[in-house]
Design a protein that fits this description.
This protein is an alpha/beta fold and 333 residues long. Helices cover 34% and strands 20% of the residues. The chain contains eleven helices and twelve strands. The strands form two sheets. A seven-stranded mixed sheet has the order 11-10-6-9-8-7-12, covered by helices on one side. Strand 4, helix 5 and strand 5 form a beta-alpha-beta unit. Helix 1 packs across helix 10 and helix 6 packs across helix 9.
Length: 333
């Protein structure tokens, strides 16, 4: 873990944040960003281009039309970078993050982060002063305050990301445990966990795991089509496609449900209950808007030298990765 300062950093003041943001805006259009992996990385390219960054892209798949096929060539030709975004298959996150670290100030690692919390500690220990953050874009949604308000008057919150038929590219690396390091619990569940952290607030670690189960309900034979990608009938499908996580502090409880496929259709929403009744209190989530990605990147860059911000990010990232990698109970059928 990054060594703490002699005294615990304090949150920066509102005036200080305004000044930092003004400084960032003055230099933002001179920033340069690297994207490794142009599947989901295309979204980052769009966002960073809108922010005025020079964007360099890398992907070994020539059909993606990236700037470079080889990462080594991109690093040699265009370093240093202000930000790097790791959007490769999950099993490569740690290796690629290590490789880009000496060439950038900040590394965004796509969820679910890396193989273990120890790997995350290694990244932070061995690559100073480079900063690492797991992408938690949902924490920067515009309606987080509305969620907090409804949560304050509830004793049970259910956060669902249940898709009717959105298994990601069945048969490809997404559904192969060797490369994805898991299934829906490493794909959709991290979004819900980051929303939990945003809504529960700074005392999120007071919540303990009451239930964490994963289950594979479908096989490749069940995938005649999907709303997300294509089906490789000759591929592998050996990962969970449903996950349920219950967290409670004794007074309030969160139930997180993530499913790639459900016979009951889509339910991508946050539901609020008091005394067992919902009373129509729900917030529809939908796909995370691009504005949240932009705010995440901007906010992180603004606070590059803010020790309190980075101690908090490290605390959250380690907690999430310990939860995902070391506390799951597999119930594969």
């Amino acid at each position: 873990i990054r060594r703490p300062p002699r005294s615990t950093p304090k949150p920066s003041s509102a005036a200080s944040d305004v000044y930092k943001r003004q400084q960032y805006e003055e230099i933002s259009e001179r920033m340069k960003s690297l994207i490794v992996g142009m599947g989901f990385g295309q979204l980052y390219k769009d966002v960073l281009t809108q922010m005025g960054h020079e964007v360099i892209t890398v992907d070994r798949d020539q059909s993606k039309k990236a700037d470079f096929i080889e990462l080594t060539t991109a690093l040699a030709s265009h370093s240093p970078f202000d930000t790097a975004h790791i959007c490769v298959p999950n099993h490569l996150h740690f290796k690629v993050a290590q490789k880009v670290a000496p060439h950038t100030k900040l590394v965004f690692v796509e969820k679910p982060g890396v193989e273990s919390s120890d790997h995350w500690r290694i990244l932070n220990n061995l690559n100073q002063p480079t900063r690492f953050v797991m992408t938690k874009n949902n924490m920067w949604r515009d309606n987080i305050e509305e969620m907090k308000t409804k949560f304050a008057s509830s004793d049970l919150v259910q956060i669902n990301w249940i898709n009717g038929n959105r298994i990601p590219n069945p048969g490809t690396w997404f559904t192969n445990s060797k490369f994805a390091l898991g299934g829906v619990e490493k794909d959709l569940l991290p979004h819900l966990i980051s929303l939990f952290v945003a809504v529960a607030g700074p005392n999120f670690k007071d919540y303990s795991v009451k239930k964490f189960t994963t289950e594979q309900k479908y096989t490749l034979k069940d995938c005649t089509g999907t709303d997300y990608g294509v089906v490789d009938k000759n591929g592998v499908y050996d990962v969970p496609d449903h996950a349920e996580l219950t967290l409670s502090n004794g007074d309030k409880t969160f139930i997180l449900n993530a499913s790639w496929k459900s016979p009951f259709g889509d339910d991508i929403a946050m539901h609020f209950y008091k005394g067992g009744e919902n009373n129509g209190e729900s917030i529809q989530l939908g796909l995370c808007p691009e504005s949240a990605y932009r705010k995440m990147i901007e906010d992180t860059l603004v606070h590059m030298e803010d020790g309190y911000f980075w101690n908090n990010q490290l605390d959250i990232d380690l907690w999430i990765q310990e939860l995902l990698n070391e506390n799951s109970e597999n119930t594969l059928h």
